[in-house]
């Protein structure tokens, strides 16, 4: 599993962040029209956190420069504006020549239309099972509280 830093700058991996839990990995941005999805992401964290689930936010500034802040600014924005309690990683590229290795693997997963490849925009979501398999991909406009996302999360959590 490739290394990635936390938003606080500590070396880790998604496997370590997940710690055997299911995870919804989401590339996030603070100045995007989809930024209000943070509310529903935090609601998922609160609803399913005790059942072996976590959201993992991955800031990226690749889409219209909508995540320009420093790590500290991102942390402050997320916690004060949306009450985010889920883990966040360092800001990374999710597409292109400098795509972070974590996303090299994630983008191979097709969405419900069967399309794989580049992340389309901020707030694209990848569901990772407790075993570490990427089992679903949801495009940016599919909100975290969409019934398809909820059903997919519940299917990997079991009882």
Automatic annotation (TrEMBL):
Whether Oxidoreductase counts among this entry's keywords is yes
Catalytic site residues? Answer: 32
BP GO terms, sorted: cellular response to oxidative stress
> What domain of life does the UniProt record list for this protein's source?
Bacteria
Return the Pfam families for the record.
GSHPx
In alphabetical order, the GO MF annotations are: peroxidase activity
What are the record keywords, sorted? Answer: Oxidoreductase, Peroxidase
What residue stretch is flagged as signal peptide? none
Q: Which family does it belong to?
A: Belongs to the glutathione peroxidase family.
The name on file for this protein is Glutathione peroxidase
Task: Supply the source organism's classification.
Answer: Bacteria, Bacillati, Actinomycetota, Actinomycetes, Pseudonocardiales
């Amino acid at each position: 599993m490739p290394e990635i830093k936390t938003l606080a700058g500590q070396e880790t991996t998604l496997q370590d962040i997940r710690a055997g839990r299911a995870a919804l990995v989401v590339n996030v941005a603070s100045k995007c029209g989809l930024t209000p999805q943070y509310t529903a992401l935090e609601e998922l964290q609160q609803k399913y956190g005790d059942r072996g689930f976590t959201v993992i936010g991955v800031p990226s500034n690749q889409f219209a420069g909508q995540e320009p802040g420093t790590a500290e600014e991102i942390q402050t924005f997320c916690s004060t504006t949306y009450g985010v309690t889920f883990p966040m990683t360092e800001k990374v590229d999710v597409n292109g020549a400098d795509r972070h290795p974590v996303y090299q693997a994630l983008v191979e997963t097709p969405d419900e239309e069967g399309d794989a490849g580049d992340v389309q925009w901020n707030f694209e979501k990848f569901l990772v099972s407790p075993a570490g398999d990427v089992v679903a991909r949801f495009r940016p406009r599919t909100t975290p509280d969409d019934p398809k996302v909820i059903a997919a999360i519940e299917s990997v959590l079991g009882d």
